[in-house]
Amino acid sequence: MSLSGLNSLYREMILDHSEHPHHKHKLENSTNKVTLKNPTCGDVINLEINVSDEKITDIGFTGEGCTISQSSASMMTDAVLSKTITESLEMAQIFSDMVMGQKRSAEDLEKLGDAAILSSVMQFPARIKCATLCWWALRKSLGEEVDD
Amino acid sequence: MDNKFQKIRNDFPILKQKVNDEPLAYLDNAATSQKPQAVIDEIVRYYQNDNANTHRSVHTLGERATEEYEEARGKVQKFINAPESREIIFTKGTTDSLNLLAATYGETNINAGDEIVVSYMEHHSNLIPWQQLALRKHATLKYIELTADGQLDMDDASRKITDKTKIVAIAHVSNVLGVTNDIKKLAAITHQHNAVIIVDGAQAVPHQPVDVQALDVDFYAFSGHKMLGPMGIGVLYGKSKLLNAMPPYQYGGEMINFVEKYQSTWTDIPWKFEAGTQNVIGAIGLGKAIDYLTEIGMQNIADYEHELVSYALPKMLGIPGITVYGPHDSTVHNGVISFNLTNLHPHDLATALDMDGVAVRAGHHCAQPLMKYLGVVATARASFYFYNNRADVDQLLQAIQETKEFFKV
Predict the structure, then answer these.
(1) Using CB atoms, which residue from B348, B363, B364 is nearest to A67?
(2) Nearest to B161 by CA among B194, B199, B208
(3) Active site residue B366
(4) Which domains are delineated in chain B?
(5) Is B381 on the interface with A (CB under 8 A)?
(6) Contact present, B5 and B31 (Cβ < 8 Å)
(7) Could you say which of A20, A122, B257, B275 would form a disulfide bridge with B252 (CB–CB 3.0 to 4.6 Å)?
(8) Domains present along chain A, CATH in parentheses
(9) Taking the model in full, what pTM does it have?
(10) Distance (Å) from the C-alpha of residue B324 to the closest C-alpha of chain A?
(11) In this prediction, does ipTM exceed 0.85?
(12) Burial zone of B209 (CB within 10 Å; 0-12 exposed, 13-18 middle, 19+ buried)
């Protein structure tokens, strides 16, 4: 029996975020809004943010998905709230590198806050997309070109 | 019987491995089947001894390759009881077969205002070619509804198929709901309205005897890889009268009669539809798979799988918090069981089951309209083949139990 192996992916913090996601609500009068889907599993994220003076002043998400996608979105909203656009996009890059197994410094990973715990998803290649969907939504909402 | 099927398992080398330190319980057979040693050996034998291009070369290897390729066609013909071997066209798979039909039969026979009838349980491969054809031709696409327990609503089929209908495209066995549709009856209704019936048999041919004459279907498509054969080979059966009247699908080598500077004429069926170098080893491998299946007997396979479903389905239905889609009555349920656990996404479920060595599919199963119809985003799906056994089912049940405990659902 090897469900114990699941512990490396479904850490307590990930399960907590998934059960009680932070910032899971609609925003009133958001400045940037984007919907992204993961066509292979049907997961959907609607991400809304308020940007003023180049800063993310408010953020919220709705949609549905698995434990990994929900907790990742929750941790991302914590991480990027009140960060500048430049900082947020840098974090998106750090996150993407991290789950793809590319080495980033401890200092970089610290910038992600709780979200750094999702480095564990690297060992489950089929699930990487679940973790990155929200970050792609963030990139797109901040005006980066993203393949849907 | 059970004993015989236990021995059969040894013919499949891939099943002997461990996955995540657990014995592999491969329950993703609706996606693809594993290959017996006989098929693997056949592929090696062909490449070591007989490999050449077919229908072109006068030399000995060319003769052998051609003979074996055409022999495979004959095996397919017998296997589905087609009247003639020239009615068997080799394709890349079910998707390719159905796209061929949409691009040839569909293109020449569908006009504005015509109707094409499909059902809510179609796989995308038997839906999108018709949806796009309808858009191109300003034809109407109609969906046959399902009954509350997930079977095809035959009363609705009688209503939806009308004199305006030109094509009825329907799955023989659903890849999600595990139901077998009454093709014979649907063919009769279709023919009353002078339309043709096109059947997606991808989930039927590997698991039960199929007789295209008894069903009286006009076209029938299926894939080799779901029935022990290699990937990249499939079949399109069509009545010769219809195939003869259809334009070619692709142009190029070996599908021509005479080529002049500004005109060409086409060779006869089936080769008219087999342009370019074909997947010869795919066909020969499929032929070997058919030999293997025939030796066991398709009725025996159907009976054995049925027994396995009768064992698995009631036990699965007994798990608190589980939803099983499709009929709950084992007598009308094939070896495809789609399910969800309350408060757990099927992808989390599939990852957890994999840690216990159990391979299932999770997702929309290339049937997004059906997912919407069922009101779900995705489901998990366990699908059996005759090399599975009760131990695989028990391993699945145990893994589901452990998953529930892990996620506290």
Answers:
(1) B348
(2) B194
(3) yes
(4) 2-28+297-407 (3.90.1150.10), 41-294 (3.40.640.10)
(5) no
(6) no
(7) B275
(8) 26-141 (3.90.1010.10)
(9) 0.92
(10) 19
(11) no
(12) middle
